[in-house]
Amino acid sequence: MPRSEYRGRPRPDGNVDGDDTATHPVWKGKTHKAKDGTLNGMKKRTRTIERQFKRGIDMPATVRNELERELRSLKASIGAIENRRNRGHMIKKYHMVRFFERQKASRKLKKAQKALIDSPDDKKIKQDAYVYEIDHDYTHYYPFLERYISLYANKGEEESNAVPPGHVPVPGLKGVQRPPIWSVVAEAKKLGLPALERLRDRLSSDVDPLQEPGHEATEDKEEKKQAKLKGKKGKEKKNDKSKGERKGEKTAAAAAADSSDSGDDSDGGFFE
């Protein structure tokens, strides 16, 4: 049979062999649209605005300002959502180890406090009680968004001989080694609960929990104010100096004029 006359065999579904459009539709591209207000929707809108800026599209200043404000708001919202998700992930990841170490620190603290009742002047017992108290706070207020560093040796290891990785000697406490953040917890405890919560909830290791929020901004504002005042005073001094110089020039000019007048008078008298 000539090839042009072949039409294929009919199938039970009514289609003919070679016609795959019924069972294999042609892909027309991605049809899913990111919904407004969702994380994907905000990311898509952010990319759209950034592309407009990169292309250098001419737009009125008011429109550009609105887009810049929207972009800042979108980035802040995206960062907040991602931080919240990451926080939940990290809390879940280290929940058990923090729980067990909290229980262990609590037992050690109670034991040291009982021993301190019998020997109130024993410096070693006092130090142990203090260390275990900070250990307990450490398990509570270690930053959620940072990898948790264990306080104690693994089960089956002798704590006196085994030191978990990441530990350093604690200044002022003989024979005590703890993670670096342990000392930060101890300092934050002196400042009270708000400082401990700032440490626990900080978004970055660059954030200093021992400094109250807005303190840096106040200092920067004060520094700018002082610099502005210095600049103003310098300008005033310069203006005063310029005025003095102009006054001196006028005085010198007046003196020169007087000298010239007196010279004319004397010359006239001589020739007379």
TrEMBL record:
- Which residue windows does the record flag with biased composition (Basic residues)? 227-236
Keyword Ribosomal protein recorded? no
Q: Where is the composition biased (Acidic residues)?
A: 261-272
UniProt GO cellular component terms: nucleolus; preribosome, small subunit precursor
Single biological process term from Gene Ontology: maturation of SSU-rRNA from tricistronic rRNA transcript (SSU-rRNA, 5.8S rRNA, LSU-rRNA)
Q: Where in the cell is it found?
A: Nucleus, Nucleolus
Region: Disordered, residue numbers: 1-38, 204-272
State the InterPro entries in the record: Efg1, EFG1_rRNA-proc
Keyword entries, A-Z: Coiled coil, Nucleus, rRNA processing
Q: Where are the compositionally biased (Basic and acidic residues) regions?
A: 1-14, 213-226, 237-250
Which PANTHER family does the UniProt entry name for this protein?
A: RRNA-PROCESSING PROTEIN EFG1
Family indicated by similarity = Belongs to the EFG1 family.
Role according to the record: Involved in rRNA processing.
Q: Which protein, by its recorded name, is this?
A: rRNA-processing protein EFG1
Organism of origin is Ceratocystis fimbriata CBS 114723
Instruction: Name the gene.
Output: efg1
